[in-house]
From TrEMBL:
The lineage of its organism: Bacteria, Pseudomonadati, Pseudomonadota, Alphaproteobacteria, Rhodobacterales. Pfam families: HTH_1, LysR_substrate. This is LysR family transcriptional regulator. It comes from the Bacteria. It comes from Paracoccus caeni. Signal peptide: none annotated.
Length: 303
């Protein structure tokens, strides 16, 4: 059995479509369809059932997943054995919620690529949990550790969030000295039914009212705050990127969360990915610390 056929099989199984697999492999969907048909003919079994939702694995396809992934790991190990020790090269895809993806990972990717010129870093920003089982990414930063799947989690660092508003908004409204003063103010937060992790349910934890403007994106929430639309819970590490945004009631509303680095359990055998995971972990810790220190050191109004 040809490893390249198995590689295509895994891509279709993970993407659940020929077009999705084609994008991952930079191949034409019709070519992928022919290769899958060839593989099915070679082993004498139907591997996928076409449904309205896409390509679903049959029972025979499910049984092929484990040996195909074992072959994939062996091929990766062989590639690593022949790769130069001079530096880390190739593609690295990191998945993350958009707060981390927007305000931390760009600087981290810049420094990784500068230190390792042959490295290509892809940042996958998603308003949901990254699916490592389907190999959407090589590793993911998450706000909580997974409790299902063949995944391993490494705690990276704690970070802080505070209620914040733009100075223009604060200047146009009465002073906010206590939580009770928030009554009547416009709040900005997540769309309630699109909160994909309980750790993101910020407003309910603060006891404040329902938000008037909501989005599933942290960046959109921050842009609304910058536009003077109201107050919202923001990451301290994002504030340096938003001139004019100030923390409010920081002695009364202060949230602590943690970042975790998630990897597929099988990838621990990869020396390359292990080294890259260590570099990403160190960089996330350092960048969160640097940006939070910058916010704490800067003068700001409590409102």
């Amino acid at each position: 059995m040809d490893w390249d056929d198995l590689r295509i099989f895994l891509a279709v199984a993970r993407a659940e479509s020929l077009s999705g697999a084609g994008r991952r492999l930079a191949m034409d969907a019709s070519t992928i369809g022919r290769r899958i048909a060839r593989l099915e003919q070679a082993i004498g079994a139907v591997l996928f059932a076409k449904t309205p939702q896409g390509y679903a694995l049959t029972a025979e396809g499910e049984r092929l997943i484990a040996p195909a992934e074992a072959t994939e790991q062996a091929a990766a190990a062989a590639s690593e054995a022949t790769r130069s020790e001079a530096g880390l090269t190739g593609q690295l895809r990191i998945g993350a919620p958009d707060g981390c993806a927007n305000y931390l990972l760009p600087q981290i990717a810049r420094d990784l690529c500068a230190a390792h010129p042959g490295l290509e870093v892809q940042i996958l920003a998603l308003p949901r949990v990254v699916n490592l089982t389907k190999r959407e990414a090589d590793m993911a930063v998450a706000v909580s550790a997974p409790d299902t799947g063949r995944l391993v989690a490494q705690r990276l660092t704690d970070y802080r969030l505070h209620l914040a508003a733009h100075q223009d908004y604060l200047d146009r409204h009465p002073p906010i000295r206590d939580i009770a003063d928030l009554k009547g103010h416009g709040l900005i937060g997540y769309i309630p039914d699109m909160i994909f992790d309980r750790e993101l349910d910020y407003l309910s934890e603060t006891g404040t009212q329902t938000a008037a403007i909501t989005s599933n994106s942290v960046s959109v929430q921050m842009q609304a705050i910058r536009a003077g639309a109201g107050l919202g819970i923001v990451h301290d590490f994002a504030i340096p990127f938003a001139p004019g945004v100030r923390r409010v009631l920081e002695d009364k509303i202060s949230l602590k969360r943690s970042f975790w680095l998630i990897r597929h359990a099988d990838d621990r055998a990869s020396r390359r990915l292990t080294l890259l995971a260590e570099l990403v972990a160190q960089a996330v810790r350092a960048e969160v610390s640097r940006l939070q220190a910058e916010v704490s050191a800067a003068p700001h109004r409590l409102a």
